[in-house]
Amino acid sequence: MLAREQIEIKTPDQVRLMRRAGLVVADIHAALREAVCPGATTAELDAVCAATIEAAGAHSNFLGYYDYPATVCVSVNDEVVHGIPGPRVLEEGDLVTFDCGAYILDDDGEQWHGDAAFTTVVGGEYASQADRLLDTTTRQALWEAIAAVARAAAGETSGRAARLNAIGDAVEATVDRALAQTAREESAGARLGILQEYVGHGIGTAMHQAPDVLNYSIKRKGPKLRPGMVLAIEPMLTSGGPEVRELDDGWTVVTQDGSRAAQWEHTVAIVPGGVWVLTAPDGGEEGLAPFGISPRPLPERG
């Protein structure tokens, strides 16, 4: 069923199918976290992703997408998104983002997708202060945005806060707070930029659907948040300016100023009275707890 904005509204059963796809993505993330280390190549990490998808009996929604040649995007340091795995050897202190997904088929052969991303520092204790600020702020922005959606779904907000605009407002406010905090701590020169050319999206029977999910505030009204909407919320920040360029491979996007980048993403279903984070193993329990919010998983059919 499609709303007037051509946003695909899912039934509870369809959300449950997407949860199955989301748990495959969560398994991929767990496998990548275990495998990433100094000396690993990005191609080896793509093989880890592919093996996890195969073991789950699922399908990659990245491989072959507009001819993309791998099952995961591995973006290193100044690579913002869509880094292609290959012979590159990871080193201690590299800031790496993994963005990947999977889909499962229902009994009618319809695809149901999951999509999520995380950033990590190779050999974590070697992270610079700037990388820690960038990574921590990006992850915090994700959960602030998810919490804003949860409040709207619970009927706790109205106006802009009950619309899609709430996500961009939350990301922008998180970045502003982080910069204000670093200024108070006299971290002179700290910078954070919000990527504007690449945004989140609706997701369901296709990996990318309406609506676009912006990571910055806009004046115009966005669509109302309503049960059955499923969104891939994915703030992308840089430690410099937001300007980017695409490399000659036709995929890899890097920052214009050479600053580093981070991305955190979850697939989030709006359900009656709240949200269910489909790509988090615990449904979003840990991430939402600091906001006094619990996820609202749909009961299994029985």
| Low-pLDDT residue intervals, each spanning 5 or more residues | none
Strand content: 15-25%
Structural class: alpha+beta
Helix content: 25-40%
> How many separate helices?
5
Task: Give the overall average pLDDT.
Answer: 94
Q: Tell me the number of strands.
A: 14
Name the assembly state. single chain
Alpha carbon gap, first and last residue: 24 Å
Largest sheet: 5 strands, antiparallel
Please write the string of helix (H) and strand (E) elements. HHEEEEHHEEEEEEEEEEH
Radius of gyration: 18 Å
Tell me the strand order in the biggest sheet: 7-6-8-13-14
Shape, please?
Answer: globular
Summarize the structure.
This protein has 302 residues and is an alpha+beta fold.
List keywords for this structure.
302 residues; alpha+beta; 3-stranded antiparallel beta sheet; 14 strands
Describe the structure.
By secondary structure, the protein is an alpha+beta fold. Helices cover 29% and strands 22% of the residues. It has five helices and 14 strands. It has helices at residues 12-35, 42-55, 129-153, 165-184, 285-288, and strands spanning 72-76, 79-81, 95-105, 111-121, 193-194, 200-202, 209-213, 230-233, 236-238, 244-246, 253-255, 261-263, 266-271, 274-277. The chain has a five-stranded antiparallel beta sheet with strand order 7-6-8-13-14, with helices on both faces. Strands 1-3-4 form a three-stranded antiparallel beta sheet. A three-stranded antiparallel beta sheet has the order 2-11-10, with no helix packed on it. α1 packs antiparallel against α2. The mean pLDDT is 94.
